[in-house]
Amino acid sequence: MQDVTRTLARLVVQSRYDDLPVAVRHEASRALLNWFGCAVAGSRHETVDRALAAILPFAGAGQAGIPGRGERLDILNAALVNGISSHVLDFDDTQAEAIHPSSPVLPALLALAEWRGLSGAELAHAFVLGVEVECRIGRSVFPQHYDAGWHITGTAGVFGAAAAAGKLLGLDERQMAWALGMAATQSAGLREMFGSMCKCLHPGRAAQNGLHSALLAAQGFTSSEQGIEAKRGFGHVLSSRFNPDVITEGWGVHYELLSNMYKPFACGLVVHGVIDGCIQLREEYGLQPAQIDRVDLQVAPLVMELTGKTDPQTGLEGKFSVFHAAAVAIVDGVAGEAQFSDARVRDTEVAGLRKKVHVVADGTLLWTQAHVAVRLRDGRVLERHVPHPLGSLERPMSDADLEAKFLALAGDMLGGRKCGDLRSLCWKLTDLPDAGVLVRAAAVI
Amino acid sequence: MQDVTRTLARLVVQSRYDDLPVAVRHEASRALLNWFGCAVAGSRHETVDRALAAILPFAGAGQAGIPGRGERLDILNAALVNGISSHVLDFDDTQAEAIHPSSPVLPALLALAEWRGLSGAELAHAFVLGVEVECRIGRSVFPQHYDAGWHITGTAGVFGAAAAAGKLLGLDERQMAWALGMAATQSAGLREMFGSMCKCLHPGRAAQNGLHSALLAAQGFTSSEQGIEAKRGFGHVLSSRFNPDVITEGWGVHYELLSNMYKPFACGLVVHGVIDGCIQLREEYGLQPAQIDRVDLQVAPLVMELTGKTDPQTGLEGKFSVFHAAAVAIVDGVAGEAQFSDARVRDTEVAGLRKKVHVVADGTLLWTQAHVAVRLRDGRVLERHVPHPLGSLERPMSDADLEAKFLALAGDMLGGRKCGDLRSLCWKLTDLPDAGVLVRAAAVI
Predict the structure, then answer these.
(1) Backbone angles phi and psi of B2, in degrees to 5
(2) Contacts of B60 in chain A (CB under 8 A)
(3) I need a surface site. Which of A152, A425, B50, B414 has the fewest CB within 10 A?
(4) What is the mean pLDDT of chain A?
């Protein structure tokens, strides 16, 4: 593929809303609902408090809101803060190439749409294109780029934000190529930051810099028009392997958004199989902790490597304990943020059951798979094999599952009525005359 | 060197103003004066106009000014704009590792100092440390990092801005390590952008993101404390070779700022030898264009490769024509921005002399060297060999040279009296109780 930057720019500019399949439009609503849950629940995290403290003295006019909070900021700073809050719980959507697609793109679009009073259909269209651009560019350098140490949600996300914002701004083909070039030269984010607050700075800065790239391009601020493919451009400088063909092939036929995955449980994907199996058994057999003698788990070796903490003391440690995950799933029947609080980790009943959990690593299992066996005091053994956990492409979360996740995340903060309103607005996304109602409905004054 | 991020953070935090040698303090004034000339002259460039158009609707309170203009912006946006304006003419200072040290650092510091009313000594100290940090980190990955395609003024500059701003903010050692980590994870800028407006976005964004890293760290926003040296940190991810030792060795003994170079002429370094030789001959012999029969230049092959345009038509093309450079230097006796205007390139006398210039590539010459021979109508041949052009470390610009350059750049915009005031303030930098007077003195309402 020659001139991939320019070709991609043309595809984005020429794309029409009417071309989008109905399933893709619906998926935009699903992703939006999931994003709002994460952003609202994340908005009161101390990471966001600290970021806001370092931003508020310098922010411009209150053009855009922060879901879950009352502050209003200029659109560039709103994009930054919302990118941070939507990723801070690590509960946002994912793709096979390790990209979290919505967190760098939606904050840029929601801010721009709110400020300009753009329609929901325009927002949905730009969002679909942004996800298309970031996932395709990500795939062009995956996995070498990620393996080398780049946090691909930041490095690819900035392209998605630039393309999506550029679409909303109505850039022409050349301006869109400049916006993509500016994204290329601001592509950044290192995996070394995992485990610190700085990890969620990456989608935040990607959203902000991508949006700014589009705004600069709209003013005629020039850039290279070969920012992605040039010898000293993104693909060759940031990766040992670069395949530009995947950036454009199958455009308009295969949609990246249809490969979007949503996490049902508020912890790493590696323990989702175990949690899923435990919840299934609980629901089917009306399991009570008091009945249980012993829980046996078979998991891939990686699961024990990453989540082998036997005696967690804090909520965060609980996320790295397959023992806690199994116990709390059986006791509570869900595994949202609340199940990974300090209180739930220290709860007597949960901690008691945790001691009865035994884990064996089994090299024949994939890291997403699990086998759960619960031995009851009456001697019965209840078993469940989970080949594909809930939330995987093979067993996606239903619309109802996504609604339940959203309510669990946003309910405390917004209350039932506002949650209901926001949920309805998300489902009606493409019919909204002014997409600004979305963020305004998520405000907490 | 183990723990280089943490060690560097400690060195910066523990550094005391009183430790700075007098020569280093004086060099800070020289660099500041040179920077102001570039920033004021660059401030009306269309690149800056377009950037400002894309920033003003979103900027916060008028905390800091833009030298050469009347707008006032929040400090983060002021750092961005001033980083752009000071590099747009490519006339700012340089170091052996291809870093332009002042443009990513001073915009962050001047904005912060103006907002907080910090003293000139504090600013000078932070500036010296910022240059120390960026040049040493740059050297730890040079030349492989640069050769791979990274624009090192952006990638290393963000560390300088973060460290310098962090020093002004009084960060403790751990916060400083976080600020350096955030710089690492925002290190960006591709050489593919050379030739577009986007090149000077790099020091601008480095200044802004470095400043923001320090502000975030001051609020307790955490990052990795091994951002520079970790397996997935800056050194290993952004370069095929990384030598952490040079980041700290000789700290406090050798000062990077003393290796700072200033360009006397408003074009690429490769033609500085030719211009220097031409001006020397003009001054010594009172050369008039009408006397000249022919000009013969011997230069390194690279000079012809980069600046071989025989018949330039615009000011920008003139910068890539060693023929124009020689002719205009003989006619005008200087080679500032004015000599690379469309008007001077099209001037009859200059164009006439340009046709008499002949160039031979000589593989024995270094790319900074030149040999100039002017044959007069009366048969005399005047020759000058330039082993080290003015502005090189071997033949630095004098304080008077820097003042003349400053006046040539800022004179039209500020007028004589304001230029005089600002020049005096730069020389008195370390005695200023409030460094905010500097930028305010450079404002044009």
Answers:
(1) -80, 155
(2) 57-60, 74
(3) B50
(4) 96
Does A77 contact B59 at a Cβ distance shorter than 8 Å?
no
**Contact at CB, B185 and A202, closer than 8 angstroms:** yes
- Tokens 């990077």 sit on residue: B256
Q: What is the CA radius of gyration of chain A?
A: 22
Which positions in chain A touch B75 (Cβ < 8 Å)?
A: 58
Q: Where in chain A is the domain with CATH 3.30.1330.120?
A: 269-386
C-alpha pair distances (Å), A303 with each of A269, A319, A427, B354, B444: 9, 12, 36, 73, 63
Do A154 and A95 meet the contact criterion of CB atoms below 8 Å apart? no
Minimal Cα–Cα distance from B217 to chain A, Å?
Answer: 9
How many interchain CB pairs under 8 A, A with B?
186
Partner-chain contact A74 B53, CB within 8 Å: no
Identify the CA nearest to B35 among candidates B95, B101, B99, B96: B101
Residues of A in contact with B196 (CB under 8 A): 178, 181, 222-224
Tell me the average pLDDT of chain B. 96
**CB of A40 closer than 8 Å to CB of A33:** no
Give contacts of A196 with chain B, Cβ < 8 Å: 178, 181, 222-224
| Helix or strand (DSSP H, E) at A160 | helix A157-169
Question: Residue B392 carries which DSSP code?
Answer: B
Q: Which two tokens stand for residue A399?
A: 């619309």
pTM of the predicted structure, to 2 decimals = 0.95
Q: Tell me how far apart the alpha carbons of residues B423 and A420 are, in angstroms, rounded to a whole number.
A: 64
Q: What SS3 class is residue B434?
A: coil
Query: Which pLDDT band holds residue B396 (cuts at 50, 70, 90)?
Result: very high
CATH 3.30.450.20 holds for A269-386: no
Q: Does domain B4-262+399-441 have CATH number 1.10.4100.10?
A: yes
Q: Where in chain A is the domain with CATH 1.10.4100.10?
A: 4-262+399-441
Q: Mind listing the pLDDT tens digit for each residue in A28-81?
A: 999 999 999 999 999 999 999 999 999 999 999 999 999 999 999 999 999 999
What region, left, alpha or beta, does residue B41 occupy, with left being phi > 0 and alpha being psi -120 to 50 degrees? alpha
Q: Is there a contact between B193 and A181 if contact means CB atoms under 8 Å apart? A: yes
Nearest-by-Cβ selection for B222 from A197, A223, A230: A197
Residues of A in contact with B149 (CB under 8 A): 231-233, 236-237
- By Cβ distance, the residue of A149, A202, A226 closest to B192 is A226
* Of A47, A205, A232, Cβ closest to residue B190: A232
Q: Where are the alpha helices (DSSP H) in B219-266?
A: 234-237, 245-248
Residue of B nearest to A191 (CA): B232
pLDDT tops 80 at residue B120: yes
Residue A69 vs residues A355, A434, B14, B372: alpha-carbon distances, Å: 39, 21, 39, 69
- Is the separation of the CB atoms in A159 and A184 below 8 Å? yes
Residue A46 to chain B, least CA–CA distance (Å): 9
CB B42, CB B88: distance < 8 Å: yes
